[in-house]
Design a protein that fits this description.
Helix content is 60%, strand content 0%. The chain has 83 residues and is mainly alpha-helical. The protein has a domain of 57 residues: Arc Repressor Mutant, subunit A (Orthogonal Bundle). The model has no long low-confidence stretch (mean pLDDT 87). Its main location: nucleus.
């Protein structure tokens, strides 16, 4: 019943406008690479490490925590998909 209200299902965007693969990044590449390096060492940083990372990247501790949370979730989803 809800599908009749889903406009994008009825009228999908043409491939010339959107190919479905566009990625946007909120943080600069340097920041993301630093976060990835720390993530490989410890995917569950404590609040002290989060504050250190926040200072090093120019983000706030909440943003750092959210990045780690999202990254762990994406890794779990990718692992589940590959099974």
């Amino acid at each position: 019943p809800v599908d009749k209200y889903r406009v994008r299902k009825k009228f999908p965007l043409p491939p010339t406008i959107w190919d479905g693969e566009q990625k946007t990044h909120c943080f600069k590449e340097r920041t993301r690479s630093l976060l990835r390096e720390w993530y490989l060492q410890d995917p569950y940083p404590n609040p002290t490490k989060k504050r250190e990372l926040a200072k090093a990247t120019g983000l706030n501790p909440t943003q750092v925590g959210n990045w780690f949370k999202n990254r762990r979730q994406r890794d779990r989803a990718a692992a589940a998909k590959n099974r």
